[in-house]
Design a protein that fits this description.
alpha+beta, Nuclear Transport Factor 2, Chain: A, Glutaredoxin, four-stranded antiparallel beta sheet, 7 helices, about 40% helix, about 20% strand
Length: about 240
Amino acid sequence: MQHTFRSLATAALMALSFSSAMAQGHEATIRKNLSERIPQIPKIEEITATPLAGIYELRLSTNEIYYSDAAGNFLIQGNLIDTKSKRNLTEEREAKLSAIDFNALPLKDAITIVHGNGKRKLAVFEDPNCGYCKRFERDLAKVDNVTVYLFLLPVLGPGSVEKSRNVWCAKDQAATWVNLMQKDTPAPAAQCNTAAIDRNLEFARKYKITGTPTLVAQDGTRVPGAIDNAKIERLLADASK
């Protein structure tokens, strides 16, 4: 019996080693063929097997997900959906890759806005000249019992930089922001140290936050773009599970 167990264990180890060698061989082939045939493709950071036999996931330096066969003869762009479990594997992977550790957020560089008891938490990166941000703010106003950490992210030109400075330097930052975004009340001109805004821009570059608004839930889930109050509620509920 002991001899049989050792034989099975040895066979399993050999199979695992063979599988690993095969995977490494496929990875080298995929990298070589794609770099030669599509030289403009961003750097391939990682290649992993998918549940679909013979198909590999490629994670690019842009955090985009592509798929390839083992020889790199075919490059596939799109969603990989598990019809049995009804899961979009591509979306799940992208969400995991784009997640931001909430504890890593530099909250000292954010404006804190409290709704109700403020028990739930949400971080938002916004530009004061962003029309979608204004629409989002009107929906966010309908959401109660949440603390919003607003990171000013002036990416739409000099006018955004000026408005962000006026908001950050205001005596009441939260009220000034709400009045600007929900009531179109201009923020009075103000001057102060705006190094926090520069740090926000650097943080956005580091984490590839390229558009506004961008939301970060307490569980790290990142949501690009404006969503309505019902979806905000769902995001907060999912983050608290």
